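## Example record

The block below lists the input lines for one assembly entry, exactly as stored, with component labels intact.
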Amino acid sequence: MSTLHARIQEERAKYPAGSSSAVMPALRLAQEEYGWLSPDALREVADALETTPAFCKSIASFYDQFHLAPIGEHLVEVCTNVSCAVVGAQQVVEAFEDALGCRAGETSPDGKVTLRTIECLGGCGWGTIVSVDHRYRTRVRAEDVPSILEELDDGR
Amino acid sequence: MAAELDEIVLANATTRLAEYEAAGGYRALAKARAMTPAEVTDELIASELRGRGGAFFPTGRKWSFVPSKEQLPKPHYLVVNADESEPGSFKDNEILSRVPHRFIEGCLITAHAIDCTHVFVYIRGEYSGPYEILVGALEELHGRPDLRGDVTIVVHRGAGAYICGEETALLESLEGKRGQPRSKPPFPAVSGLYAAPTVVNNVETITSVPPVIAMGAAEYVKLGVPNTRGSRVVSISGNVVNGGNYEIEAGMSLREIVYGLGGGIADGRELKAVVPGGSSTVILRADEIDVGYDFDSLARLSTAMGSAGIIVLDDRCCIVQLGLRFSEFYEHESCGKCTPCREGTRWLTAILRKIEDGRASQDELDLLLDVCDRINGKCLCPLGDSDAIIVASYVAKFRDEFQAHIDQGGCPFGGHSSLDGVLAPVAMHAHPPAAGVPA
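Predicted structure tokens for the full assembly:
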């Protein structure tokens, strides 16, 4: 695997010279590398893009998918917008909270899973949608929660 | 009123180039390239295809606004809006996943029509599945210079921001800035991406282009009803038996969509209301759904197809909670650039929370509508307006329910609404942190 710096340069080449367009792909690459966007990671992205860490942070802070604080090994996001909510999303949230021993917006005490609610994921007819490490699970019900967490335990 | 329709956008689902080609795929591209760009644009104008992202702007006319390179010597860009984030809409998810090559063919035809060699597809960051399918399809295209021509298609992933579905916010985001809307004019056709002439089209619009060219405008306009021609991929969700995406002929009755395609109301419940075109559209009561699913028919009820996200709500839904949950969404997604939206969405959420909790006085219901007035029509983009319009429509159509909350000092559903206690992201951090959680 090439270095983060080299991969960011590949992204930059997709856009016109002099544009800042590669900042989002670069932040995504850095987050995939380090798990979150630490001050050091932002510095590294800024250097690769020949810009400042503050600029990179101003972009990262605008978007929900960028993490400016550490998260757990796994990320579980439950859609609680209306289409999912009317078919039981809140019960799914509460089942995760009970099983993980943390509230939505927090990380389980063992540091394994960060749980949060999220706005519409674009799978409304197949609700409740749960995004587990960026993969959608459809038609999730509260009783499905233990098996989802078991899969994470198994490292699948 | 036609109900049955052979799929044209979603037809012949395949992610493989060879299979798509064997089923007649990429022939519309050859046909279009044998035409001049102006002829292609004229064909789109004649087809009366209108934008499927929500604004319903005539597609061919939008293309015709791009100045020629003699008039303005700058590159032209096609930017496809695949940032589908409207609550209730999930059609572009399915289109990209099922027929990626028809989508790509639409990009290539459109690029020809607007004399452009650079296409950017802005896909929402959460769509990992459709993203990988699209990238796989583009890799296959890469091995086919005869199809690709001199066109480069770059897929740009968003990172979680509803506002980036607004076209100028999308362009800002694509330029590597915070996704905040621009004031218009100038319009993107003249000054869009990198201040160059840019066409921004939705995924479904682009995927409708190959069928329009293949069948010809004269055939395409035979589908649908006046002012709403062709097919429409509708997303059905909520309290229905068969949620999913269905391609219909425009003008089909909303009742037929909900009870026919959607299979009716789930769990043996009664229909209460339908949100016809995504969260931002004016609600319809159960007695208002004998209406054609087309622009003019819905406009007569002061509502719209929007992005075709049809949310079905049964009799367990508290309308105050519905307004609260959607307002929480708009508050969360407000970019903060203009005051009426930034302040107003917060106010709407706060007042609706008070009403729901039974703590609101009578004049706070008036205040709610007053805040709606102070938002509506005063924002840079439609986000804040949407919150104001829908909340006002909930009060207008379900006033008794709002009044009951005030009179009874609480929710008449007594904790049994289908939206009871639902935790919105914007409210997530109101929880006290649990003890012992590591930093």
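Chain B has three domains: 17-220, 224-314, 319-420. The radius of gyration of chain B is 22 Å.
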